[in-house]
Each structure stands twice: as structure tokens, then as C-alpha cells.
């Protein structure tokens, strides 16, 4: 970037990732679980299973295995509705993430 103050740099088509997700949560997860979590984190809105399939490039059964584990850890929440279930990223206690 051309700005002399690197702390002010903004990278287009990117998103910031809290260090807690990398340093503390990633080691606890299987690679597919981490991919699903990061996709949910990036989008921050309720997502249908199909969105995870397209966005993560993982098979449905892999995602169906990952989501309950992420739910049990309090990292995503399931929202049941008339059109089916959706999942959304849920920040940790105290808004750490």
C-alpha cells in the first residue's frame, strides 16, 4: 500500500480474523470444522447448508458432521425455520471474538 502507516492499510476483498480463532480455537478443530467456522465467521449471517457446501467446497456429509460439533462448542447456533435450518456464527462469552 502507499500509506506510510502500515497500521492503516486496508486490503481489498479481505476480512480480519481475531487471533483467538487461530491461536486457541483452530487447534481444537478438525480442518473441515475450521473451514466451516471461518465461512460462518466471514459471512456473519444465518446460512443454509447449501451455502456452506458452495462456499467451503466440502461435501454435505462433512458439513453435517462439522456443524453439530461447532454448535456444541458454542461457536455457531442453529436456527430452525419454515424453509429449513440455518447456522450463524456466535461470538464467545464477553464478545471476545
Describe the protein's topology:
Elements: H1 19-25, H2 31-43, E1 47-48, H3 49-56, H4 60-72, E2 76-81, E3 84-89
Antiparallel strand pairs: 1-3, 2-3
How much of the sequence is in beta strands? 5-15%
Overall structural class, as computed from helix and strand content, comes to: alpha+beta
Give me the number of helical elements. Answer: 4
Tell me the radius of gyration. 15 Å
Largest sheet composition: 3 strands, antiparallel
Number of strands: 3
On the 0 to 100 scale, the average pLDDT is: 88
Strand-and-helix sequence, N→C?
HHEHHEE
- Which residues sit in consecutive blocks of at least 5 with pLDDT less than 50? none
Bin the helical content: 40-55%
Q: Cα distance, first to last residue? A: 27 Å
Could you explain how this protein is built, in words?
This protein is of the alpha+beta class and 97 residues long. Helix content is 42%, strand content 14%. The chain contains 4 helices and 3 strands. Strands 1-3-2 form a 3-stranded antiparallel sheet. The longest helix is centred in the middle third of the chain and has 13 residues. The mean pLDDT is 88.
